């Protein structure tokens, strides 16, 4: 059927709409392909909420909240329990440590009580022994008895343990007391009246060196080398012994001496060896004199090979012994020997540099001439100065050593060596200022001097002076003559202030990076290596002893009054003396007179 015009119009509209929709669809497809825009898909419509769903959601939220709160509470309780456990463990640890300290304190108290009982028993035995020796005498006052007991404590300690280091703090507050004991409580042989004088002199010499350089906070006895040396040389340990005069102390000293003889029976003949043989023995050279603190030279630099020569310890020790041989050269002096010992010399076909070290003790073997009229005086042998070299750089870059520095040394011991096997060695010790020390017991008695007419050989020991003034009274070794020596202050000058004649020019610089004299000298290198300044001094404990113990003890006031009354009663002027003093007091207006009665 043919369509009507109206239907034809609707069809045309539909076609037109369809064509437009097709174009829009194609355009959207093209845009979608090009990524220009995306038309979101319509979201699905959520179903409508119901009362049952709301109840389930609320119940789940409440369950989750309760679980979180329970977990938080559980964690808090666990933390508190852990903290409480840690506190309990800490308290147990503190209690355990307190118990340990209490046990240690109890053990120390028991040990102290035991030592006090032993000391009391020894004191009672000593007093009883002395009471029997003195016979029937009147009892002494309590004050005097306590004073004697106080002075007898070192001997009682010696009877308990012979080593002085077991009773005193040798590196701290007791250093001065130990120095005085080492110099005043001399050795007791314990074997026979005179005993081996060579060994006795060696021990006394070591005791003097100990009091000079081994004590105090910077003492040499704290160094590792000395501990090793004591293990290898029993003589060094034996020199620390306290030799008292009681029977117990003598017996202890005798036992220690026998142990010393037995330990060195295959090494040194202690019974018959002289001091020179013992002091210069292989044992002493290896363990003592070859140590850096006693070496006279720094490592020898071979200027031919430009290397440091390695010498064995025996040669090092012998090279550090100066020889003042006036038997062959009467013009030599102590200072000449010290000055001529350093420099560049040719030995064994090679040129070597002998550079001075700074030892704490210097040994000098002195052989006087036969004619006593031309011998050196005692004053000229009490001190000398050892050169000190300082590296300097000249304007042209040449290496120079300033040799104007000086280190002062003072006499601390003299050993008179024996003439033959029938003779005996002798020793005298003195303070740095020159005062002769008088030990309670002298194992080498006899009067002798450095100026004796009989030509002998002496070994002199000089200690490094650490700021000790030289304005004290010097005396002869025999004590027969006193001399006063005026103090001489050494002056130091730099290399720029000295003439060229006082500056020794060297072809090699000193040790590269040298901090201490122990380091080796390398081959020639930098022009200005660091060097020790002359102001750097070796820190030593000033062991100049106080007045010797147990000598010139002042009487107590009661004893002084008792002695005065006895003197006045014997002269019959007791009453007159009182009246005279009363008259003097009236004249002075009741004031006490300054003078003694």
UniProtKB/TrEMBL annotation:
Bias-annotated ranges (Pro residues): 523-532
Keyword terms of this UniProt record: Coiled coil
Record field: compositional bias (Basic residues): 576-597
UniProt key word 4Fe-4S: no
Feature: compositional bias, Polar residues: 1-11, 488-504
Coiled coil residues, start to end: 88-129
Segments of this protein annotated with the region Disordered: 1-22, 35-59, 129-155, 488-597
Biased composition (Basic and acidic residues): 143-154, 560-571
Top-rank taxon, per record: Eukaryota
Record-given protein name: Uncharacterized protein
């Amino acid at each position: 059927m043919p369509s009507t015009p109206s239907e034809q119009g609707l069809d045309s509209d539909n076609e037109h709409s369809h064509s437009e929709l097709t174009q829009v669809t194609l355009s959207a497809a093209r845009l979608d392909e090009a990524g220009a825009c995306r038309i979101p898909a319509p979201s699905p419509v959520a179903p409508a909420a119901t009362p049952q769903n709301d109840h389930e959601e609320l119940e789940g939220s409440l369950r989750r909240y309760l679980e979180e709160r329970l977990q938080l509470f559980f964690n808090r309780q666990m933390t508190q329990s852990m903290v409480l456990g840690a506190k309990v463990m800490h308290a147990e640890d503190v209690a355990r440590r307190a118990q340990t300290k209490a046990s240690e304190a109890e053990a120390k108290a028991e040990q102290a009580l035991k030592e006090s009982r032993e000391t009391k028993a020894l004191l009672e035995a000593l007093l009883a022994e002395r009471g029997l020796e003195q016979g029937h005498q009147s009892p002494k006052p309590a004050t005097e008895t306590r004073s004697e007991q106080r002075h007898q404590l070192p001997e009682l300690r010696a009877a308990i343990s012979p080593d002085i280091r077991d009773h005193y703090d040798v590196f701290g507050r007791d250093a001065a007391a130990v120095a005085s004991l080492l110099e005043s409580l001399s050795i007791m042989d314990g074997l026979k009246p005179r005993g081996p004088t060579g060994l006795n002199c060696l021990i006394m010499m070591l005791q003097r060196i100990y009091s000079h350089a081994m004590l105090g906070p910077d003492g040499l006895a704290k160094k590792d080398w000395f501990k090793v040396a004591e293990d290898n040389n029993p003589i060094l340990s034996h020199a620390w012994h306290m030799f008292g005069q009681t029977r117990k102390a003598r017996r202890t000293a005798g036992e220690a001496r026998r142990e010393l003889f037995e330990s060195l029976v295959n090494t040194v003949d202690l019974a018959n060896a002289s001091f020179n043989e013992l002091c210069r023995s292989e044992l002493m050279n290896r363990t003592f004199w070859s140590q850096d603190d006693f070496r006279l030279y720094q490592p020898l630099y071979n200027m031919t090979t430009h290397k440091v020569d390695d010498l064995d310890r025996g040669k090092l020790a012998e090279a550090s012994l100066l020889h003042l041989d006036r038997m062959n050269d009467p013009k030599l002096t102590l200072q000449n020997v010290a000055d001529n010992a350093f420099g560049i010399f040719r030995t064994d076909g090679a040129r070597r540099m002998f550079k001075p070290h700074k030892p704490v003790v210097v040994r000098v073997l002195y052989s006087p001439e036969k004619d006593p009229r031309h011998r050196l005086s005692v004053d000229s042998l009490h001190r000398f100065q050892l050169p000190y070299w300082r590296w300097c750089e000249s304007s042209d870059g040449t290496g120079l050593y300033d040799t104007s520095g000086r280190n002062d040394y003072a006499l601390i011991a003299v050993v008179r060596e024996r003439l033959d096997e029938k003779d005996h060695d002798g020793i005298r010790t003195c303070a740095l200022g020159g005062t002769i020390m008088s030990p309670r017991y002298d194992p080498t008695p006899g009067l002798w001097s450095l100026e004796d007419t009989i030509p002998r050989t002496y070994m002199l020991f000089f200690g490094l002076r650490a700021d000790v003034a030289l304005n004290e009274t010097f005396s002869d070794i025999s004590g027969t003559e006193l001399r006063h020596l005026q103090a001489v202050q050494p002056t130091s000058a730099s290399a720029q202030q000295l003439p060229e004649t006082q500056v020794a020019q060297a072809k090699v610089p000193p040790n590269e990076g040298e901090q201490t004299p122990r380091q080796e000298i390398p081959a020639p290198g930098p022009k200005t290596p660091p060097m020790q300044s002359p102001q750097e001094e070796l820190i030593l404990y000033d062991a100049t002893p106080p007045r010797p113990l147990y000598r010139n003890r002042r009487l107590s006031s009661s004893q002084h009054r008792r002695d005065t009354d006895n003197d006045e009663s014997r002269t019959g002027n007791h009453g007159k003396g009182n009246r005279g003093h009363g008259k003097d007091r009236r004249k002075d207006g009741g004031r006490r007179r300054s003078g003694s009665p």
